[in-house]
Design goal:
The structure is a single chain. This protein has a single domain, classed as 2-Layer Sandwich (Beta-Lactamase), CATH 3.30.450. Helices cover 50% and strands 18% of the residues. The chain contains 7 helices and 5 strands, in the order αβαββαααββαα. It has a 5-stranded mixed beta sheet. The protein is globular.
């Protein structure tokens, strides 16, 4: 897939993967599903789900480290600022031949435009939170989150997934 195709597909993901409502129970279910999906793949990730900046689910699987929590924080900051997936923002910066730091004056220590954090949208409301994982290569982090969101929301992951590289 080309850079432009990935950017367009991620925009489609962001438009499609929207909740009718999102609360503490939904956040917990989303976190548990991410944990189960990572375990089924034999992967270790840290998982974070937040609603309006309030942490509702965090789990660091064996094999992760505090560094994964910091990556989540940095990716979450991008999504909170832009209301776009961290991977989508990173690819957009790449297509513009710039960086998030150059474009927004954002400190690299606080913002990471790497895959793995996705906005939580509620229809008719907007962006109300974030869901993030860290521990895999960035495209895999992004794909894991999208696959689980698609399943939870009853959407076809096959229609939303990024093409294999």
């Amino acid at each position: 897939m080309s850079l432009e195709q990935d950017i367009a597909k991620i925009a489609q993901q962001e438009q499609t993967l929207r909740f009718e409502k999102f609360d503490n129970t939904t956040a917990f279910e989303l976190g548990l599903r991410l944990k189960a999906a990572a375990e089924a793949r034999g992967k270790a990730v840290a998982i974070d789900v937040q609603l309006n900046g309030f942490p509702l689910f965090f789990y660091a699987m064996p094999g992760t480290s505090p560094d994964n929590a910091d990556w989540i924080r940095r990716k979450r900051n991008v999504v909170t600022k832009c209301h776009r997936s961290s991977y989508g923002v990173g690819l957009r910066m790449q297509s513009l031949d710039t960086s998030f730091a150059e474009r927004y004056g954002a400190a690299v220590a606080d913002y990471a435009t790497h895959g793995g954090c996705f906005p939580i949208f509620v229809r008719g409301v907007g962006c109300v939170g974030t869901v993030a994982v860290s521990g895999l290569p960035q495209r895999e982090d992004h794909n894991l989150v999208v696959a689980v969101l698609a399943e939870l929301l009853g959407q076809s992951y096959d229609e939303l997934k990024l093409a294999d590289e």
